[in-house]
Amino acid sequence: MEKDYILGTDQEELDRLGFQHRVWSEDAFSLWKKGGVRQGLKVLDLGSGPGFASFDLATIVGAEGHVTAVDISQSYVDYGNFQAKQRGLTNITFVQGSAHHLPLVGQQFDVIYCRWVLSWLTNVSDIVQHIAALLKPGGVFLVQEYVQWGTFRIIPERPAIRAVIEACRESWRIMESEIDIAPQLPEMFHKSGLQIEHKAVIEKVANPKEMVVAMAWYLLAHLFQKTH
Ligand SMILES: C[S@@+](CC[C@H](N)C(=O)[O-])C[C@H]1O[C@@H](n2cnc3c(N)ncnc32)[C@H](O)[C@@H]1O
Question: Which end of the chain is more exposed for a tag (fewer CB within 10 A), N or C?
């Protein structure tokens, strides 16, 4: 049986994901726009967590469209479905399932979105192949994953923060997944018949009074267009 992911699914992690989404939502919206996400489309948010991005996507696709949010964590799925009910939304469904065995038999999507998920998984190449098969012809796969997680800095440097960064890097070193998965993706996409339309590095620099608390992260945003 697969476990919940390493950062856990408690309230603290849920709040962290919410904060993280607010910091990065502008970049997510920009990628969705580039990828043609619009009213009426059928979207899969893979590894959705509690659904911070999924609910924004549901707003874009509207009542004529639909968002399926899949996550391995039952507690996030329950949270998402509860939120959907509270908000009276019928165009979003949270489904428990693993990216390794997606519970989506017979379904196809116009758009598949995946943010900060492939970095935690093994056999990513197989997952990419499965994702490609779930796209409608001409569908797009939008990905935001790390290029070099360990590059963020706090200046002036604080030893305690450096120790945290190194401890995280060490924990990833002993896991089978690859936190800096983004550079490996183009080849996997190529093998799965996905053609790169757009890629970009996103960096953020801020001072302590801003919402991005003095850090710079690097993400690679891909837009892939299926051509056959
Ligand atoms: C860093 S969070 C990102 C959540 C969300 N994509 C976002 O942008 O806020 C990683 C998510 O991947 C999920 N996850 C981990 N392994 C998974 C798997 N094998 N299949 C599906 N989801 C998985 C975790 O439960 C968690 O919600």
Answer: N
Residue nearest to atom 1 of ligand 1 (CA): 116
Global pTM value: 0.89
Domain residue spans of the chain: 11-226
Mutate to test the pocket of ligand 1, among 2, 5, 57, 217 (most ligand atoms within 8 A of CB): 5
Which 3 state secondary structure label does DSSP give 113? strand
Ligand 1 — pocket residues by CB below 6 A? 2, 4-5, 17, 21, 47-49, 52-53, 71-73, 76, 98-100, 115-117, 120-121
Overall fold of domain 11-226: Rossmann fold (3.40.50)
Residue 224 Cα, ligand 1 centroid: separation in angstroms? 20
Distances (CA, A) of 78 to 10, 120, 138: 13, 21, 32
